[in-house]
Write a structure and sequence with these properties.
mainly alpha
Length: about 300
């Protein structure tokens, strides 16, 4: 079993979904206080990344008994990593690796608490619970129609707040609010990735919100999620007085509009639908990069 198998099992490229929030929140902390704590930053990156990868593996493990074996429309971005279905790793090996990574994430959280960040006990527990309960029986938030909210909480404002707190020692609301743009976009990534899985999820009684709403209504929600990210930039500038430079995030708007167009006119089971998934991920990554650089530039040139 090669490293590429482990990388695919963990869905390593999707780490941008958790690491860009850490980068944005850390840049905001630097912009506000002018200092950076590299040791705490590295612990945060390691802990958040481990929790994210562990949650990915746990999702594959539980879906291997549910929708994944039924899914004939899997894409590189939905339907799981397929390492279990392709017999590259056993379900037990995937589960054990998931628990090891979740344990590593928890250990990083304990280290941050020891180093003087006690609120990590609560904020880290929110992330750990969201990642675990999203997939794990008997709760399975993903099947109960709460999975999308769990992802918004795990990778949106609460994650930004936690990373901001680690750097500043403050739970100022601005650290929470700065997570809105990427929070909407990470939820949009999950949302659009659920489209090709609708038939398999419904057959396996995995009643996520796209299954419950149907594709027609789900397309409207997807468009709202994508556009809400850009609207939130104006809220951050007007209400929370973030630097006007963050308006550069609008540079990602053409990608978002193209993704919405593809999702609107293409059937999720067609290969032509895959660009909508790619464009959604690219919109998230570009927004994260722009916000990080804009906040750093504002700190350096104030």
């Amino acid at each position: 079993m090669g490293l590429s198998t482990y990388a695919r099992a963990m869905r390593l490229p999707f780490l941008t979904g958790s690491l860009f929030p850490v980068a944005v929140a850390t840049a905001l902390a630097y912009q506000i206080q002018g200092t950076w704590r590299p040791g705490l930053f590295c612990l945060t990156v390691l802990g958040v990344g481990a929790l994210h990868l562990g949650a990915n593996l746990l999702n594959d493990y539980y879906d291997s008994f549910g929708s994944d074996p039924l899914n004939i429309y899997a894409t590189p971005f939905s339907g799981g990593s397929r390492v279990i279905q392709n017999q590259e790793m056993s379900a037990l090996a995937v589960r054990n690796l998931a628990y090891a990574l979740l344990g590593l994430g928890a250990a990083c959280g304990l280290a941050l608490i020891y180093l003087g960040r006690p609120a990590v006990a609560f904020l880290g527990l929110v992330g750990l619970a969201a990642g675990y309960l999203y997939s794990a029986s008997p709760v399975q938030l993903m099947s109960a129609g709460w999975g999308e909210f769990a992802i918004f909480g795990a990778f949106g404002p609460p994650l930004h707040w936690g990373a901001f707190y680690v750097q500043t020692g403050s739970l100022h609301p601005v650290g929470l609010a700065v997570g809105l743009p990427l929070g909407f976009l990470i939820t949009a990534i999950l949302w659009i990735n659920e489209f090709p899985d609708v038939e398999a999820d419904a057959a396996a009684a995995k009643r996520q919100l796209v299954v419950r709403l149907g594709l027609k209504k789900a397309r409207y929600v997807y468009a709202v999620l994508m556009l809400a990210s850009f609207a939130s930039l104006f809220l951050l500038m007007e209400i929370f007085r973030l630097p006007d430079l963050i308006i550069a995030g609008l540079a990602a708007l053409p990608l978002a509009l193209k993704a919405i167009g593809v999702a609107w006119r293409t059937e999720p089971t067609d290969p032509e639908f895959i660009p909508a998934q790619i464009l959604t991920i690219q919109t998230h990554a570009l927004m994260g990069l722009i916000l990080t650089l804009a906040l750093l530039y504002a700190a350096w040139w104030r």
